[in-house]
Design brief:
Number of helices: 11
Number of strands: 8
Number of domains: 1
Largest sheet: 8 strands, mixed
Shape: globular
Mean pLDDT: 87
Distance between the termini: 34 Å
CATH class: Alpha Beta
Strand content: 15-25%
Order of helices and strands: HHEHEHHHEEHHEHEHEHE
CATH topology: Rossmann fold
CATH architecture: 3-Layer(aba) Sandwich
Helix content: 25-40%
CATH superfamily: P-loop containing nucleotide triphosphate hydrolases
Strand order of the largest sheet: 3-4-2-5-1-6-7-8
Length: about 230
């Protein structure tokens, strides 16, 4: 199980890279504030959920009020990363079985709330495209400084596209050891088809020497962030 490096190793190069990602996100659009951000990847196993969780922690640790929403209704991971139950969450709320307040959980990090996926539904794409989902994404902006949304890989299912067109921006996570150029091009095209605002790419699982870390930061892996300009 992946760990939250922002909590386990706050002085590591990986944690510092997440702080850099936080800064880049905050300044990525100039005067236009980015509040709702979709995190996705090209395929499975690239580390999008771990990136999503650590980025949310980094934002909360800088004094922001943050909500992380697990919209990966096929293989949810956020509840595991934060060690929370998942019997009630987003899906239960969307179908009207529970109140909004019952679907949002407090984390151990000050300022960070978590909406887990809830029960895995038979129709994830249809549920995420419902009017109720869009309405509450807008309402969340009135309460939180940032809403970070974990979604399934964009090249595998349409869920990320559905949400990307309704949010302020998208961050694409790519594993240096797994991703192929064709997959990145495909992901970019799919997101552009829904007029998503692609904020940048997180290069994950890259060897530190490739990212230019010195010995002080050398822990074998690193993260880097590239804005699309």
């Amino acid at each position: 199980m992946a760990m939250l490096q922002m909590l386990k190793n706050p002085k590591s190069s990986t944690a510092e890279a997440y702080r850099t990602l936080r800064t880049n996100l905050q300044f990525s659009q100039g005067d236009k504030q980015v509040k709702t951000v979709v995190i996705t990847s090209t395929g499975a196993g690239e580390g999008k959920s771990t990136t999503c969780a650590n980025m949310a922690v980094a934002l909360a640790q800088s004094g922001n009020k943050v909500l992380i929403v697990d919209c990966d209704l096929r293989k949810p991971m956020i509840h595991k990363l934060f060690k929370l139950g998942n019997s009630e969450g987003l899906t239960n709320f969307l179908v009207g079985n529970i109140k909004l307040s019952e679907s949002i959980k407090k984390s151990d990090i000050e300022g960070l709330h978590v909406m887990t996926s809830g029960i895995i539904p038979p129709n994830p794409s249809e549920l995420l495209s419902c009017k109720r989902m869009e309405e509450y994404l807008d309402k969340f902006k009135e309460v939180y400084d940032y809403i970070i949304i974990d979604t399934p890989p964009v090249c595998l299912v349409t869920d990320a596209q559905i949400l990307a067109g309704k949010t302020d921006g998208v961050v694409l996570v790519a594993s240096c050891k797994h991703v192929h150029k064709k997959a990145l091009v495909q992901a970019k095209g799919l997101l552009e088809n829904v007029e998503a605002n692609i904020l940048g790419v997180v290069l994950n699982k890259a060897e530190s020497k490739l990212l230019g870390y010195n010995k002080y930061y050398n822990n074998g892996y690193g993260y880097n962030y590239y804005t699309t300009g």
